[in-house]
């Protein structure tokens, strides 16, 4: 298994654990886990965001079908977890996120009134570390049960730590897997600069390869993203939303941002297709940003 580290800090198995918090109020450490069934008929994601200086955790779990949002657990006032399993508890739910074998397997459990998950993310290819912020992405096969029913699919998990101000910067993040086994990933923040953005591909049975020169272009239907064209090495890939699972975020000062994350169908110009997740973050004044 290969760990591709584009950053200037060492990335090793210790980074799968929690990190020492910085002193900034919005210092955050988060774990994401997303998944889509092989046939694209069911998908979802889990995010645990820890805000030690804000003395709370954010927990999100969403399940969608092509008909729309099927179930969700959203808690923006959960107590910070106290155990290595990152267990959080709130009204009507208990959830845990455990890195069973660093960079190889991770497990998510959720028991709630709305949704039950018992899933494992098993690494395919390796991990990719960002250059512009402490963060890494891991493409995975995903297996287990959802509401007691067997599940098989694919997705990506990631882990990041540092200051995250949801109310100032817009961005696009996209991750998908084509039916031939190719993974694609790209992220761009709308900061008015053309940087070397985090992007990679994983060929079938291969390892992550940095996608130099990655670009993206998003079109909107009103406030809703309609599609994003991802230009990586090789044929361009278009991500089109199938079902949205949005979250509204409120800052300590009362500002609101909208986070329209969506399960997407991915279509390559050469005819290949697949499934995954894309997000287009919309903070206050997002329309004044130049979307790329």
Automatic annotation (TrEMBL):
Residues 166-284 form the DUF7064 domain. It holds the Pfam family DUF7064. Residues 12-164 form the DUF7065 domain. This is Tocopherol cyclase. It comes from Nonomuraea wenchangensis.
